[in-house]
Amino acid sequence: MPSSVEFALRCSGVTRFFPSGVAVDDLSFDVPRGSVLALLGNNGAGKTTTIRLLNGVLRPDSGSCRVLGLDPAIHGTDVRRRTGVVTENAGLDDRLTALENLESTARLRGLRGKTARARIDDLLERFDMSRQAGQLCQGFSTGQRRRVALARALLHDPEVLFLDEPTSGLDPAGARAVMELIDHSARERGRTIVLCTHFLGEAGTSADLMAVMHHGRLAAFGRPEELAAARWPFLDVYLDLGGPPTPEVEATLRGLVTVRAVRPVADGALVSVPGRDAIPSVVADVVASGGRVYGTRSLPKGLEDVYFAVQQEIAA
Amino acid sequence: MTLLASATSLERRADGAADAVDRPAASRRLNHDVVRALLSKDMAAARRSRSIVLPLLVVPFVLLVGLPVGIAIYARAGTPPDLGRFLEQLPGPIARDLSALPAQQRLLELVLGYLVAPLFLIVPMMISSALAADSFAGEKERRTLESLLHLPVEERDLFVSKVLFAFLPTVAVSWIGFALYSVAANVVAWPVMGRVFVPTWRWVGLIVFLAPAVAMLGLGVMVRVSARARTTQEANQLGGAVIMPLILASVGQTSGLLMMEPYWIFVASIVVWAIALLLVRGGLRRFTRDRVASRL
Fold first, then answer.
1. Is residue B4 part of a domain?
2. Does B258 lie in the same domain as B239?
3. Residue B82 in contact with partner chain A when CB distance is under 8 A
4. pLDDT one digit per residue (tens) for chain A, 316 residues
5. Cys bridge to A208: A35, A141, A149, B2, which one at CB 3.0-4.6 A?
6. pLDDT in tens, A35-70
7. Test mutation, A54, A83, A157, A184, chain B, max B CBs within 10 A
8. Are residues A263 and A139 in the same domain?
9. A14: helix, coil or strand?
C-alpha cells in the first residue's frame, strides 16, 4: 500500500452542494503518483466539479482533498502552481494570438525571458502550432484551440494534469498524439493525470484507474481489470476453428467442465473459461474430438465494458 | 512523431523552467508582477476589441469635443439669446461676473464654462462601467474566466487587475478628453472671447478629483452587478438601472458644483470616493474563487 506522500490525489468524503442540488456527494478515492485516472460519467455527473475541487477552485462543503500532500482549500495557490488544467472549453482569449495567450500564462506562472520563450516555442512545435503562433485564436478550429490549450497547461511542466475532454475536436492524428503524450507523461515522467473523456476507447488504453461518477456519487472506482474481474469471473476466449463449429465440436465444448458458456460464431466459437490456464486443455479437447483450432484470442473485459456494466447497475 | 521526438529536449528545458517558476511567500500582499501581467493581457485584448475601442474613443470625442465646439460655433454665428432670467437663478457672484460680459461672451462662458460640466462626469461613469462589465462579466461570456481561476493567481491580484483595467483607461480618456476640450473650446471661442477662459481652478478640481471618483463609483456598481451577470450585455442592463440615476443626478448637480465655492468640489469628491471605495471593497470581499466558479 503506498504511503500518503505517494498518493498524488486523495479525496475523503468530499461533498459539495450548489443551489441546484448536490454536485459531488461523499467522494473518496486515492490516486498514486504517476497514474492515469479516467474520470468517467454522463454529463452532469460531477466530473468538472471534482476537478475544480481538487484544484482549489471550489471548496468542499464537507470532507477534504489532498493534492501532492497539500489541501487545495487551504493551499490553493501552491497546488495550482504544480498542476495544469485543460478545461472542457479551451478558455483561450480569442482577441489574442496563440503566442500571446501562452506568453501571458507563462508570465502569470512566473516564467520569463528566454526560458519562457524556449518553452513556448517547443510546445508550439510539439503541438504543430508554430505556423499559427502569430494568428488570433478567433479564427482557430476546435482542434487548434485544444492544442494551444494543451500547450498552455504544460508550460510549467506540471506534476498533476487535469484534462477535461482533451481530444474533443482533434483529428485522429492529433488525438493519438495527445494520448501518446498522456502515456509518456505518466510512464516516463511520473506525472499524474486525471482524464475526463467520453471516448472510452482511448481512456481504456491509458487509464490505470477508472472512476465512474453518477449524480455526484462514485459508482465505481479501481483498476479496470479488477473491476472487470469482480463482474465477470470468466474469461471470454475466441477459438478460430476455420468455420462454424461442427455439432461434435460444439457438443464437446458444451460438455467440458471448464467451459461455462459456448457461442458459435462465423469462424469458430466464443467460450467462457475460468482463466487463461484453461485454454490449452480446451484446445486439446477440441482437437481430440476431430476439430481444428487455427488460433485463440483472449478477450478480457476492459474499461469500456466495466463502464457500461456500471451504468446498467445504476439503471437497475 | 513530432510530439515525442522533441520530448527529451523539452523535458530538459522544463526542468530549467521549473526552477524559474516564482514561488512567492504565501502572503496576502499584492503581487505586482501578476497584476501587471494580467493588466497587459487585458489591455492587449481590449485594443483589438471594436466594442471597447469605439465607445472609448467616439463617445468622449463627441461629448467632450464635438458638442462644445458645435455650441461655440453656434454662439459665434447666431444672435445670442437673452439670458437675463437664467442669470437670476445663479449664485450672486457668478451672475454678476457673467452679466458684466458682452452677450456673446456671456453665452460661451455660461455654456462652456459651466453647463457642459456634467459631460465630464457622465463620460467617466459610462466608460468605467462599460470596461468593468467587459472585464468581469465579459470573462464569463468569453469563457476565459475558468482558465484564469485554475492559475496560481491570488484572488486579490485578479480583482485589482480587473479594477485597474477599467479605471486607468477611464481616467486617461477623461483627462485627455478634458485637455482636448480646453484646447478646442479656447480655439473656437477665441474670436469672441479673446482670452483663455477654460480651464478654471474649479474645472481642475472637477477633473482631477471628482471625475476619477465618479469613474470608481461606476466601476464599483458594475463590479457588484457583474458578479451576478453571465454576459456583458446582462451586466450593462443590470448596471444601467443603477448607473442611469447616478448619471441623472450628476447632470443635475455638476454645473451647480462649479458655481459654488471650490471646496465643495473636494467635499463632493471625498463623498463619492468613499462610496465608490466601499462598493469596490465589498466587491473584493465577495470575489472569491468559490463564489465566482459557482456561477460559471
1. no
2. yes
3. no
4. 445 558 999 999 999 999 989 999 999 999 999 899 999 998 889 999 999 999 999 999 999 999 999 999 999 999 999 999 999 888 899 999 999 999 999 999 999 889 999 999 999 998 889 999 999 999 898 888 988 999 999 999 999 999 998 888 788 887 888 888 888 888 888 899 999 988 888 888 888 999 999 999 999 999 999 999 888 889 999 999 999 999 999 999 999 989 999 999 989 999 999 988 999 999 999 999 888 999 999 998 889 999 999 999 988 8
5. A35
6. 999 999 988 899 999 999 999 999 999 999 999 999
7. A157
8. no
9. strand
B2, B15, B44 member nearest A128 (Cβ): B2
* Chain B neighbors of A184, CB-CB under 8 A: 4, 7
Nearest to residue A213, comparing CAs of A85, A81, A64, A22?
Answer: A22
B140 inside domain: yes
pTM of structure: 0.83
Distance from CA of B148 to the nearest CA of A (A): 9
Same domain, A193 and A246: no
Domain count, chain B: 2
Query: Measured between CA atoms, how close is A89 to chain B, in angstroms?
Result: 7
How far is residue A101 CA from its own chain's centroid?
Answer: 27
**Residue A156, C-beta contacts closer than 8 angstroms, at least 6 positions apart:** A81, A84, A109, A111, B14, B17, B18, B21
Q: How many CB atoms lie within 10 A of CB B78?
A: 10
Residue B89 carries which side chain, given as an amino acid letter? Q
Residue B2 to residue A177: CA distance in whole angstroms: 9
- Give ipTM to 2 decimals: 0.87
Give the whole-number percent of chain A exceeding pLDDT 90: 66
- From the candidates A107, A152, A164, A176, which should be mutated to test the interface with B, based on the most B CB atoms within 10 A? A107
* Residue-by-residue DSSP string for B200-240: -HHHHHIIIIIHHHHHHHHHHHHHHHHHH-SSHHHHHHHHH
Q: Which domain holds residue B250?
A: 116-177+196-296
Q: Residue B142 falls within a domain, yes or no?
A: yes
Say which amino acid occupies B24: P
Nearest-by-CA chain B residue for A51: B150
Q: Is B156 on the interface with A (CB under 8 A)?
A: no
Instruction: Say yes or no: B26 contacts chain A, CB-CB below 8 A.
Output: yes
Same domain, B255 and B133: yes
For A118-136, what is each residue's pLDDT tens digit? 999 999 998 889 999 999 9
Q: Which of B82, B100, B115 is the last residue of a domain?
A: B115
Looking up residue A270, the CATH number of its domain turns out to be: 3.30.70.920
The answer to whether residues A156 and A264 belong to one domain is: no
Is the Cα dihedral B242, B247, B253, B258 positive or negative? positive
Question: Within a domain: residue B3?
Answer: no
Which residues are registered as beta bridge partners of A65?
Answer: A11
Q: Do B289 and A56 touch (CB under 8 A)?
A: yes
Gap from B153 CA to chain A (nearest CA, Å): 7
Q: Domain limits at A261?
A: 233-300
